[in-house]
Specification:
Elements: E1 4-7, E2 9-10, E3 15-18, E4 23-32, E5 39-47, H1 48-55, E6 65-73, E7 78-79, E8 85-86, E9 89-98
Parallel strand pairs: 5-9
Antiparallel strand pairs: 1-6, 2-4, 3-4, 4-5, 6-9, 7-8
Length: 106
């Protein structure tokens, strides 16, 4: 089963892309690490109606969305050392909701 559920902070406003057949929106989440002050940065992609929703401008950096989707490789492999290559992993979101800001402001 390939299923992902994430809650994190938008690091920047979503970027929208219009294709010939499909619209997409991409953004990055900073997902807090449990028991640490650090975060993992996860690239997210949405398509079609969900992308159009994210393109309307109400989704801004600093908001705390939660999403569910699946992992997906994107783009060509990248070199991680002289001998190794790795696939770029992102999350293809099926649904995204905005939980507000962590400090309680809206």
């Amino acid at each position: 089963m390939n299923s992902v559920i994430l809650i994190g902070r938008l690091t920047a406003d979503p970027t929208c892309h219009a294709g010939e057949k499909h619209e997409s929106a991409t953004f990055r989440l900073a997902v807090p690490r449990k028991g640490s002050d650090g975060a993992d940065f996860v690239d997210i992609v949405t398509f079609d109606k969900l992308a159009a929703t994210w393109a309307n401008g109400s989704r801004r950096a600093g908001r705390w969305p939660w999403l569910d989707g699946c992992t997906s490789t994107s783009g060509p492999p990248v070199r991680v050392s002289h001998w190794d290559w790795a696939d770029c992993l992102c999350v293809a979101a099926d649904s995204v909701s905005v939980a507000g800001r962590r400090d309680g402001a809206h």
